[in-house]
Amino acid sequence: MNIVVFGTGGVGGYFGGKLAKAGFDVTFIARGKHLEAIKNKGLQVKSNYGYFTVNPKVTDDVSQIKNPDLIILGVKSWQVIDVAKQIKPILHENTIVLPLQNGADNADKLRSVLDTKHVLAGLCKIVSKVESYGVINHFAFNPEIVFGEYDNSKTERVKNIKTIFDKAGFNNTISDNIHLDIWKKFLFIATVSGIGAMTRVVFGEFREDEDIRQMLYQTAKEIVAIANAKGIALENSDVEMVMGVIDNLDYHTTASMQRDIMESKPSELENFNGYISRMGNELHISTPINSFTYHCLLPQEKKARKEL
């Protein structure tokens, strides 16, 4: 299978690296100094499960890709539409596109640009980052990909992908309800990201502050209300699950959106708390904590995007 990993950051770099290490034909899309480092020294992956280096094919020119069978998207959620437009010309009849980024509506974004037959839905569970050019650092969570057909049907193509992922040696699951699973992940990441970005402290510090802890609960409950209004069966038990995850993560953990905002980079703010705020307005559901978080962080986001 001809596999393309679009975005060689913490997500694409780790899972793509494992696929390349297992001997699959993998081409990475990377940019700038990261691209040059991978070309010159290979892609290095540091992980709780061992270090390794691969020397894969890597390019910044999407037009060089020929006949991709599977394209794994490891970019940020705000980049999905643009990436969909870039890959559209290289898709063949049976190309599969699997989005793994955080956010609740990435498959829908892809389906708005690409023929829907190409698009799976998916998510990943991993805490990782680009440590330096050409180096990926996985430092929390047992990495896993959860994926499925948009309609949850158990097709041969998703079974084939599972076989490939199994051979690559990372956990993976064909979901029975991929949209619910995506929202469960979204519930976690949107709850911690905005609060982390506003407080600018690690999870261990904000989870021990009772007032901030209540803000986390309220943030999560607003997300559940939006999900329910959209027909997604999140429950209060899922809020408790999220709080349990927060409590059990390493004290010094931070979220990727939090790190981006603290480093004055463009972030997924619009796709997390901004999305909940907008959905609240559309669905006439009150989302005061998410809206407060979004609007407090928005000026920094605009500065990072040179819009202010």
UniProtKB/TrEMBL annotation:
All residue ranges annotated as the Ketopantoate reductase N-terminal domain in the record: 3-151
The Ketopantoate reductase C-terminal domain, residue ranges: 177-297
Pathway the protein contributes to: Cofactor biosynthesis; (R)-pantothenate biosynthesis; (R)-pantoate from 3-methyl-2-oxobutanoate: step 2/2
Pfam families listed in its UniProt record: ApbA, ApbA_C
Keywords: NADP, Oxidoreductase, Pantothenate biosynthesis
NCBIfam families for this protein: apbA_panE
Name this protein carries in UniProt: 2-dehydropantoate 2-reductase
Organism: Gilvirhabdus luticola
